[in-house]
Amino acid sequence: MNRHVLVTVSDNPSYLYGVRFVAGFFRNVEKLKVTLFYVAPPEAMAGKKEEDGEKELIARVKEALATAEHILVQNGFKRENIEFKITSRKFGTVKDIIREGRQGLYDAVVLGRRGYTIFEKLFSYSVSREILERPIPFPVWICREFEKDRRGCLVCVDGSEAAFAVTDHVGFMLSEESLHHITVLHVLETREKEEEGAGILEKAVEMLRENGVPAERISVEMVAGGKPADVILDKLKREKYAVVAMGKTGRGEKKGWFRGSCCDVILNHLKGFCLWVGR
């Protein structure tokens, strides 16, 4: 099945975290389409006589896009599956990314260094909480210095709708990626909730199987006690997952792990792996 991701690009060719993740993580890329997206300052797109600073910016953007295409092609992507889209900033970078993600019906929006910095602030309740609470109808992947030798996906489920939504997303994106094993993790609040936890894991596995993920590529783990963020980070340290997938709940929804401290802790340790967030 065809998949299509929007990868945000900064004007610095030295980073391109999102591009490097997509290029290094996926192997079955025949049906994976990538749109490279850059939000430019309005003055750079005004069509007037260019100042020296604007010329320099445009040159950097062109170099970054060319580098991004080269990285993807070197990792097996077909040039015809790579698109470029540059737009003038209209509502602010974050809102413009959300707008494009919504209108383009992408399967995911991939944020690199620039996007990571912006959304790191958004995930803090002190900045732009209103935007965070808006329904974003697509998963967001946040990448920072991805380590190409990492493998596998850790899907963290807490029983919320958001967690099951990101589980479905993982199944869709990774059903044909045989290189990556999927571990479904549930952290028990108390031993008394073990039966409930087993039901949550069973539902998550069923969703993965419905997306075509073979049973031999799925394992489950239930951990009793401890803070979810600490459990996740401990597993990352020991098992070097490439992806951690979590749900994000909004106002009025059942509380999930991605609300509050767990979110902050995972983002603060975001290095080497990619965080997939769905709601």
Task: Describe what is shown at a glance.
The protein is an alpha/beta fold. It is built from nine helices and ten strands.
Strand order of the largest sheet: 3-2-1-4-5-10-9-6-7-8
The CATH superfamily title of the largest domain? HUPs
**Percentage beta strand:** 15-25%
- State mean pLDDT (0 to 100 scale): 84
- How many β-strands, per DSSP? 10
Order of helices and strands: EHEHEHEHHEEHEHEHEHE
CATH architecture of the largest domain: 3-Layer(aba) Sandwich
CATH classification class of the largest domain: Alpha Beta
Would you tell me which CATH topology of the largest domain applies?
Answer: Rossmann fold
Q: Compute the number of helices.
A: 9
Q: Low-confidence stretches at least 5 residues in length (pLDDT < 50)?
A: 125-132
Describe the global form: globular
Share of helix, binned: 25-40%
Distance between the termini: 22 Å
Structural class: alpha/beta
Biggest sheet record: 10 strands, mixed
SSE topology:
Layout: E1 3-8, H1 17-25, E2 32-40, H2 52-74, E3 82-88, H3 93-104, E4 108-111, H4 113-122, H5 129-133, E5 140-143, E6 153-156, H6 161-174, E7 182-188, H7 194-210, E8 218-224, H8 228-239, E9 243-247, H9 261-268, E10 274-278
Parallel strand pairs: 1-2, 1-4, 2-3, 4-5, 6-7, 6-9, 7-8, 9-10
Antiparallel strand pairs: 5-10
Helix pairs in contact: 1-2, 6-7, 8-9
